[in-house]
Amino acid sequence: MKTGVNYLRYSSENQTEQSIEGQIRVCQEYAERNGILIVANYIDRAMTGTNDNRPDFQRMIKDSAKREWDYVLVYKFDRFSRNKYETAIYKKALRDNGVKVISATEHIPDSPEGIIFESMLEGYAEYYSAELSQKVRRGMNETRLKGNYTGGHILYGYKKQEKKLVIDEERAEVVRFIFEQYSIGVYVKNILLELDRRGVTYKGKPFVRSTVYNILKNEKYAGIYHFNGQVIENMFPQIVPTDIFEKVRAKVQKNHYGKRSVQVVYLLRNKLRCGYCGRSVNAECGTSQNGEKKYYYKCLGKKHHRCNKSVIRKDILEKLVLDKIVSELNRPQIMNAVVANLMQIQEQQAKEASALNMILKEKRQTETALNNLMAAIEQGIISNTTNKRLHELESKQEELERQMLIEKSKLALQLSEDTVRKFYTDALKAEPKLLIDCLIKEIILYDDKIEIYFNSPIKISPDESRGFTFYTENIKITYKDPHRSEPVVIRAVFEMKI
Fold it and tell me: How far apart are CA 159 and CA 428, in angstroms?
């Protein structure tokens, strides 16, 4: 039996555990229908999907390396991530570990066109999130200027009181301790040890290095809040004195903690094999005498002087492969057939409307709970928790109404064929890594020939002559290497195989 895990997330403090329960229910029902045994749940509460700074998400990615389960089930793909680039990276990491991401409410066929449609969904979710944020931002700006809390994650050290953020003294003392210790030269590792000794936790777990540094770099603790080029001084009550904060900021900047070097993406990493010795062809980087970085692919056998396979520049090889894939997928016959399938998938999704149905069901349950609570209040059944519960239900009702509007808007704004066609064309240009990861199984390199093997047949071949069937094409590429006086000529035979 296939096994899987659920990844569950909600982003707003106005959402509750019931949001998680609803996601679990839908994912569990999907798993039972499809013969998948769920062995674990990974849950991130009140965390945005626009970045990967989510503890359980990272733990799930790490655990996937154990290869103990086959699927990650999500309620919707935007629960996994709203950032398209990170989505592609982490899905690739999961695929390398033999794990596939599945949406319980968004039907995606296991086919090349399904892969393209999934990419479009992710892009549309990212676009819609940005569009919605822009509209909401305009309405919330006035609220911010008044110093009122506008929702979302409440920063450690604060709590909500009515419409304002106020200092949570117990946690604020922890924040002050971190700043004071770091300002006098105490190492972060020693700060962590002391916090652990005191039993101080962050979201129920011990403090970690990154959390401490995030606190140290956050100017909100000094009462400073920037929004749209404005400094709003009445949003966050000051916890840390200005002089200590500035001293700490200077030390953090000097240490350059967390500064990432520029990462070079090798599109063909883990896809290449030498046609002569059978070893992997790895990504390599070198530095010339003038300090210029050079990037290329090199056979592992060459390192041990056992293979004479020539190295090839990264940009040349990647362009060769990408141009060939994109030219095939851009052929009118292929594009028309793929777009037609994408429109069918969208139509099927609109009929199912699983997300909207779930929200409607949850809204009815919330309304029933509200009515029961109001009836109890009218009968004089009032306790300390009654008012709190009433506010929770009212907040939840507002959030569900907002979600309903979003889902209804999505259904109302069905993508036209022209829009789908544009999404398709843009995806071919903007998502080369995704195309290669999804479509290419292996590339065999010779000095005079390149063999490309695809993961699965793409059966769209209306003219019955090409499509992604086996064919051979002789090509000649000439390029100018800045380190050589004469142009470099590559004579290659492309063999496209299934």
Answer: 46
